[in-house]
């Protein structure tokens, strides 16, 4: 162990005081954010803390030659291992203040000068760093210009934690540093920090669309369970439960919240063993690694359908020009719930939304996508979802243009009646004004009745703006596309769409025959 240098060391006691309480005694309390907005004090015991420290020593193969950066705030659980793990093997810990720790360029520059061998960051900061290096490189591009990124000759492992690690960040990192591996670490504060590590090398994660969170660390058990606490098969989605040495004591002075998520472990042979319900949705991959799919509390119900916001975020990040994405549910003035997407990068919001409309079920397509220069960040470096701006869902994106033709005026009246809004213009989008699948069926039924045309439901999803939709209706009227005996009432439309499976819904939306 390293020794603190004391100027008046002669005043210290000669005898070492034995360390007491290496088991269930409380080691520390770290407050984590709660879904209600009130932080919870997670209590971690010494056995869990020591086990996690040893897991870091083992999996990072720490030695007395390592220099570990302590750049996390003391209110962040990863600060514990950052401070102590290298010292356990006789290595060195170099401590950075916030000015350096939160500076995307300054952090890596300082790590370079200090000869750091292990550095841990969150994906948001890593993206900001890579973006900054790219910008500087492009601005100073000459035949004799060197890259803005430091060489980092001593850094051997970059640990990434705290958020989902997108594959493109791995690719960009290994393009610059093919010799510096990445450890993708995952774990809840309630379980003494990380419970899995994924070791990534150049070429990782290959063709995968998600970066795995890896395999379990020492003295830890992971269970992927269904709502009845039964294990699910490989590849199936389930909630992750953590058992073993690292499971903490619960929440300080909050027995109700403790009892809700620290539950008896039915798979353990140890009397009184508990497991922690993470609230994270994961699945086991065939190779034994875990894949993180999203948060259970990021699931929302939109018009009776359970929606995984992480799935929408994942699809948004795959769109060209999108560097990062967050999706939230927001109350809509119409009384419904609207999804709002937030993206950074060069992608046009409407193009990103249109791309989602082509690949996702209608209920999963955000009513609006907002472009941001950067995501708001918490003091711990994570995306601050609570600080994302609330868009005005009733604001039109273009100046109001009055309908001109008879068909446009009639369609505008139908939009207004179905959506419960006062005025609709040529550039207004049905879904951006609060429309959804059930209201869409009502609108289609009214269009078929009032215009006497057979307009497929799919057309509204593909052409939700009034002017081009009116043009489509005009074309059908001119072509004589009549309903005849095939008309379907709104009640039948609602009944059919409510009872469709996901596969049947996809088939319905792709059915060009216009049967509905």
Automatic annotation (TrEMBL):
Carrier domain boundaries: 402-477
Record GO terms (molecular function): phosphopantetheine binding
Record flagged with keyword Lipoprotein: no
Cofactor(s), by name: pantetheine 4'-phosphate
GO CC terms: cytosol
Hydrolase recorded as keyword: no
Database matches in Pfam families: AMP-binding, AMP-binding_C, PP-binding
Keywords of the record: Phosphopantetheine, Phosphoprotein
GO BP field: amino acid activation for nonribosomal peptide biosynthetic process; antibiotic biosynthetic process; monocarboxylic acid biosynthetic process; secondary metabolite biosynthetic process
Recorded family membership: Belongs to the ATP-dependent AMP-binding enzyme family.
Protein name: Putative Linear gramicidin synthase subunit D
Organism, as annotated: Streptomyces afghaniensis 772
């Amino acid at each position: 162990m390293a020794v603190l240098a004391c100027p008046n060391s002669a005043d210290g006691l000669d005898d070492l005081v034995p360390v007491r309480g290496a088991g269930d005694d409380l080691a520390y309390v770290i407050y984590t954010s709660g879904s209600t907005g009130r932080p919870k004090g997670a209590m971690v015991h010494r056995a869990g803390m020591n086990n996690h420290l040893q897991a870091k020593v083992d999996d990072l193969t720490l030695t007395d030659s390592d220099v570990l950066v302590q750049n996390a705030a003391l209110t962040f659980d990863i600060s514990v291992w950052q401070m102590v793990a290298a010292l356990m093997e006789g290595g060195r810990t170099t401590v950075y203040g916030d000015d350096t720790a939160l500076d995307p360029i300054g952090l890596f520059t300082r790590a370079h000068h200090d000869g750091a061998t292990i550095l841990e960051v969150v994906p948001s900061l890593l993206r900001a760093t890579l973006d900054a290096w790219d910008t500087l490189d492009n601005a100073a591009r000459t035949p004799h210009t060197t890259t803005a990124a430091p060489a980092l000759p001593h850094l051997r492992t970059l640990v990434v934690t705290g958020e989902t690690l997108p594959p493109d960040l791995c690719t960009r990192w290994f393009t610059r540093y093919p010799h510096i591996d990445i450890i993708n670490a995952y774990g809840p504060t309630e379980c003494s920090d990380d419970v899995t590590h994924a070791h990534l090398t150049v070429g990782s994660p290959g063709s995968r669309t998600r970066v795995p969170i890896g395999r379990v660390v020492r003295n830890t058990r992971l269970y992927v369970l269904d709502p009845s606490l039964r294990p699910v098969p490989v590849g199936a989605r389930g909630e992750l439960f953590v058992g073993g040495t690292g499971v903490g004591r619960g929440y300080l002075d909050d027995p109700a919240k403790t009892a809700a998520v620290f539950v008896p472990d039915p798979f353990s042979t140890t009397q009184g063993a508990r497991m922690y319900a993470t609230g994270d949705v994961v699945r086991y991959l065939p190779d034994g690694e875990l894949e993180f799919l999203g948060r259970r509390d990021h699931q929302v119900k939109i018009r009776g359908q359970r929606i995984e916001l992480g799935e929408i975020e994942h699809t948004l990040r795959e769109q060209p020009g999108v560097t990062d994405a967050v999706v939230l549910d927001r109350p809509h003035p119409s009384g419904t719930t609207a999804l709002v997407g937030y993206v950074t990068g060069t992608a046009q919001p409407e193009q990103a939304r249109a791309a989602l409309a082509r690949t996702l079920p209608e209920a999963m397509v955000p009513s609006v996508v907002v472009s941001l220069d950067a995501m708001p960040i918490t003091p711990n470096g994570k995306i601050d979802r609570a600080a994302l701006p609330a868009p005005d869902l009733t604001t039109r994106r273009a100046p109001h243009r009055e309908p001109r033709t008879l068909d446009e005026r009639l369609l505008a009246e139908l939009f207004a009646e179905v959506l419960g809004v006062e005025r609709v213009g040529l550039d207004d989008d049905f879904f951006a004004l609060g429309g959804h699948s059930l209201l869409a069926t009502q609108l289609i039924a009214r269009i078929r009745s009032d215009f006497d045309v057979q307009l497929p439901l799919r057309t509204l999803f593909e052409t939700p703006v009034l002017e081009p939709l009116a043009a489509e209706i005009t074309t059908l009227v001119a072509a004589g596309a009549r309903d005849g005996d095939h008309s379907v009432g709104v009640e039948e439309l609602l009944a059919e769409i409510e009872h469709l499976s996901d596969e049947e819904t996809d088939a319905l939306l792709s059915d060009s025959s216009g049967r509905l």
